[in-house]
Amino acid sequence: MMNVSVTTTKFDLTDHELRQMCQLGVDYVDFGTGSSFPGVKEQGFPDLDELLKMKRKIRSFGLDINRVTLPDLSKNFMDQEEGSELELENSVQAVKVFGEAGIKIVRQRFAGDTFNYMTESYQARQRGGAIARGESLGFNKEPYETPTLEEHEQWWGQFREAYSKIVPVCEEYDVKLGMHPSDSPNHDTPFGGLGYRRIMDEFPSKNVGYIYCVGTRAEEGGSPLVLNEINHYGRKDRIFLVHFRNVRGSLPTAGAFEEALLDDGDMNMFKILLELRKVGYNGCLNPDHVPMMEGDRPDLDGNWAHSNIGWSYGSVGFAYSIGYIKALLAALVEFEG
């Protein structure tokens, strides 16, 4: 049975927040910011005791931790700056801490996996004045260059260096290492359509897979691409978490896209659910980027000012999205008889 998770960008979840998650029917929490954990600023990786304390608190509300984020690998590491190897050591230590805490999915972020300078972000006004994130190639009039082939392969060399150290530890601690696609999926981004598959080619371990973002991949190729990729990765049991977001348009067809409410984008989200069920997916569905509805507050991260990527107490958009997903899951059970 699939479950529902929500992302938080902070560590200190209050009783009010956890109680509201429970009331809405959330099953799991995903921690989306690697630097938010106690201990990271002090020693470079999370403090196990503080992590276990928060896990107990979350479980007391009938929820649990689904996915966490490792400390970031910065541009210094990707450029092989002196001393940056400590960043990788901290990520390895973080995997051990999360493994000891019984947390089963981690994500490693890499600097340079997106080319945000290629698009212009704008405020997309949708049904009834709901505000969503829009990205346009055409609105950006500034010249830009993408990496050369040599620069691209140098970047991948550092990616391989990192994964070659992290993957064995994930195997030892029974932790799954999931990667989110490049968002936005501009051409030549490392984790666009071709690079995303390359992860599994380079590291065929069963502990290596994907945080498959339905919306991000639709931005590159719409429903047909999403359904085909779910079939491809899902049959191999490499989808560890699904970001369940709808969008309008795509970069190849419209030169732009807009995130949308789950029932108001280009995709039929029930068809997405059927494909996930077909390949035996039993993980979490996370509403991910949620458009802002009347009374909602914009995300605190200026890079995502036109959507909510982190759980927000009292958010109408999150309540709508969670309820919609739970209704789809109930319909799926009835549909299957």
What does this structure look like?
The model has no long low-confidence stretch (mean pLDDT 95). An 8-stranded parallel barrel has the order 1-2-3-4-7-8-9-12, surrounded by 5 helices. Strands 5-6-11-10 form a 4-stranded antiparallel beta sheet. Helix 5 runs parallel beside helix 6 (149-172) and helix 8 (214-235) runs parallel beside helix 10. Helix content is 41%, strand content 17%. The two termini are 14 Å apart. The radius of gyration is 19 Å and the shape is globular. The protein is α/β, with parallel strands linked by helices. Helix 1 (15-24) links the parallel strand 1 (3-8) and strand 2 (28-31). The chain has one domain (3-336): Divalent-metal-dependent TIM barrel enzymes (TIM Barrel, Alpha-Beta Barrel), CATH 3.20.20. It is an enzyme of class 4 (lyase). Keywords: Iron, Lyase, Manganese. One of its GO terms (molecular function) is ferrous iron binding.
Count of DSSP-assigned helices = 11
What is the CATH topology assignment? TIM Barrel
Mean pLDDT: 95
SSE topology string: EHEHHEHHEEEHEHEHEEHEHEH
The general outline is globular
Number of strands: 12
Please bin the fraction of helical residues: 40-55%
Feature tags:
four-stranded antiparallel β-sheet; eight-stranded parallel β-barrel; TIM Barrel; 337 residues; alpha/beta
Secondary structure elements and pairings:
Blueprint (H helix, E strand, L loop, with lengths): L2 E6 L6 H10 L3 E4 L8 H4 L4 H12 L4 E6 L5 H4 L6 H16 L4 E3 L12 E6 L5 E6 L12 H24 L3 E4 L13 H10 L5 E6 H22 L3 E5 L2 E3 L2 H4 L1 E5 L8 H10 L5 E3 L29 H21 L1
Parallel strand pairs: 1-2, 1-12, 2-3, 3-4, 4-7, 7-8, 8-9, 9-12
Antiparallel strand pairs: 5-6, 6-11, 10-11
Helix pairs in contact: 5-6, 8-10
Family: Belongs to the mannonate dehydratase family.
Organism: Rossellomorea aquimaris
GO molecular function: ferrous iron binding; manganese ion binding; mannonate dehydratase activity
